[in-house]
Predict the structure of Multicopper oxidase type 2.
Amino acid sequence: MNFLQRGFFRLATVLLLARCSQAKTVTLDFNVTWVNANPDGLHERKVVGVNGQWPLPVIEVDKGDRLIVNMYNGLGDKDTSIHWHGMFQNGTNNMDGPSMVTQCPVPPGTSMTYNFTIPQNGTYWYHCHTDACYPDGYRQALIVHDKDAYFESMYDDEFTVTMSDWYHELVEDIPFIRVENPTGAEPVPNSFLFNDTVSNTNIPVEAGKTYLLRLINIGAFVAQYFYIEDHTFRIVEIDGVYVDEQEADTLYIAVAQRYSILVTMKNSTDKNYPIVTVADSVLLDTISPTLQLNQTNWLEYNSSAAHPEAVMKVAIASDLVPYDDFKLVPHDRMALLPDPDMTIEVDVIMANLANGAGYAFFNNISYTKPKVPTLYSVLTSGDYATNAEVYGEYTHPFVLEHNAVIEVILNNQDTGSHPFHLHGHNFQVVSRTPSYGASFYDFADGDPVAYNATENPSSSFPAYPARRDTFVAPPQGNFVIRFVADNPGVWFFHCHIDWHLSQGLAMSFIEAPKEIQKQMSLTDSEISVCKAADISYEGNAAANIEDLLDLTGQNKQLPWLPAGFTAKGIIAMVFSCVSAFLGMAFITIYGISGIKQQGETSQVVEREDM
Ligand SMILES: *[C@@H]1O[C@H](CO)[C@@H](O)[C@H](O)[C@H]1NC(C)=O
Ligand SMILES: *[C@@H]1O[C@H](CO)[C@@H](O)[C@H](O)[C@H]1NC(C)=O
Ligand SMILES: *[C@@H]1O[C@H](CO)[C@@H](O)[C@H](O)[C@H]1NC(C)=O
Ligand SMILES: *[C@@H]1O[C@H](CO)[C@@H](O)[C@H](O)[C@H]1NC(C)=O
Ligand SMILES: *[C@@H]1O[C@H](CO)[C@@H](O)[C@H](O)[C@H]1NC(C)=O
Ligand SMILES: *[C@@H]1O[C@H](CO)[C@@H](O)[C@H](O)[C@H]1NC(C)=O
Ligand SMILES: *[C@@H]1O[C@H](CO)[C@@H](O)[C@H](O)[C@H]1NC(C)=O
Ligand SMILES: *[C@@H]1O[C@H](CO)[C@@H](O)[C@H](O)[C@H]1NC(C)=O
Ligand SMILES: *[C@@H]1O[C@H](CO)[C@@H](O)[C@H](O)[C@H]1NC(C)=O
Ligand SMILES: *[C@@H]1O[C@H](CO)[C@@H](O)[C@H](O)[C@H]1NC(C)=O
Ligand SMILES: [Cu+2]
């Protein structure tokens, strides 16, 4: 393109943009069915497709658009729903997507229309939010273009790149919450995908140009390190929040997190440069020797030049030092919120319930879905809606007052790190101990360290805290977040590791329930989805419409194990059953009685010393 042509093209683009600045409606029909795919080249499997395709369509809209998705569940054997991750759904809480929180699950043969406006900017994604369903492939990027972004004039072209873990089995065929797995060891993925493939992705680039890369971890479990050999970059967005540009060379992208980065190309075209992603193996209980933890793809300056193997920075996490997202400053300079009107302090633990299986807890409550979607309880409980009891103990409800400043103090007593996500908001991250970097694992081996307001008083919080919608709690460390309850709705707060969500690591914020009642009422189409799913849509968490404070019959978590049982003890018990069985076999074959005695003695169940 010569100079004149380029100028004309620019002008045409401006005119076009001016004409298009009127918000438009984007309507998509999603026929959700099973299709086959083999993204890692190792195993073909059933995945959730849309209109017969997988990878799923990337949704691209402009700020202010209305998005309408007519979803038909053609799976035949599974319920479904879609969550629009990061979308505030201000006034449209019923479009948020999590089953039994804001809607009934959509059963096979049934449709639901999602219809909402997008006043936000940046990089988002959509995924199934009914039981554990998105690891089966039902997830993809949702990009909101914004010609007013402060960095809009700073790049020449953009690319979206997703990364994710990948399993060869359907979620329903992966054993997880069961007595044989008392420690709750998460299923180890079979591979890791870069933009839904392992075959090399070459990002075609031109020397001297600058590109916007939108990076999204759409995985179910494992965080990814990201770097580009011999290139630094500038972070300009996290989770839909523009940040002042910040130079970095390595990122840690937990599941559900997004980063937009500007990468400026070198002037030479003699070489291609590896883009490296390394799965965080610290999260994995076991690593098979064939599991490919790292992937190399390329910034391709010259397709006929070599595509060199990456010089790996490292194998273990502590040597890859990622940029600390806590230090980012929002471009809009939203100031630290004032001291909170309400503080919610929760301890995260993993423990076993009566069936011997591992569960996850906020303050000893493992989220258990109610009999009525919590939003529908709000809409059908009149003046009782402000009483948290209506929502049942095991949805772990907190009623938030309209426009109150809310602070959540989260003490992670677990030795694993967890990426926590809040629906309907982004939140200010005002404290995290320890911070990303070399010290991130400092508390992993000793005792858990709870947030200490004397050591980290609010006077030490950043003046312009970073905001995002998914934030990582360090192993046995803590974080503090703040947000304003200015978005009436029922908003789920949960760990985004889908395995941990299925173990109950979630709670419900019922924000300004009287305002929700003013904004919406239960619609005929919502009722018909519930009827098709055979789920109650009125009354309290126990589906009681007569006495809203009578929770008889509500779903509950299982009872606790008798005091003193530990995961180790359960292993010993399970193991002793197995070894007793093996012992029997040995006795039958060899008649050696000593082995049986051994099997019996290992049946002693360990007690926790407390
Ligand atoms: C969805 O796709 C399936 C398989 O192609 C087809 O049989 C069905 O008629 C489609 N349903 C809708 C509502 O488009
Ligand atoms: C979407 O919602 C808007 C606003 O409530 C409404 O006017 C429009 O009819 C809806 N469209 C569909 C297809 O439901
Ligand atoms: C979207 O971006 C514009 C600037 O382009 C900014 O003024 C606005 O606050 C952003 N909206 C949200 C919801 O972040
Ligand atoms: C990643 O995949 C999406 C959809 O499959 C595609 O639109 C996008 O261009 C791909 N990105 C790159 C860098 O190839
Ligand atoms: C590429 O060349 C331009 C113009 O000469 C210069 O400003 C820029 O710094 C160079 N970039 C690199 C990465 O060396
Ligand atoms: C691309 O790489 C080939 C092979 O190394 C080299 O011969 C060629 O000059 C390069 N082209 C450019 C434009 O740098
Ligand atoms: C990258 O993966 C390959 C194959 O799994 C392995 O040989 C190599 O050690 C890995 N490098 C790192 C740093 O993990
Ligand atoms: C959880 O239960 C244990 C044992 O009953 C108790 O000691 C602890 O205080 C409880 N924790 C919370 C946060 O309620
Ligand atoms: C909090 O920190 C202060 C100052 O270091 C210390 O005196 C206090 O014991 C700590 N509180 C707790 C509960 O650990
Ligand atoms: C929701 O909308 C209300 C009213 O316009 C506004 O005050 C509030 O800031 C919005 N909240 C969010 C999270 O978008
Ligand atoms: Cu978790």
Observations:
- The chain has a mean pLDDT of 90.
- Helices lie at 3-20, 374-379, 498-502, 513-519, 524-533, 567-590, 594-601.
- The first strand starts at residue 25 and ends at 37.
- The chain has four domains: 23-36+45-146, 151-330, 342-533, 568-610.
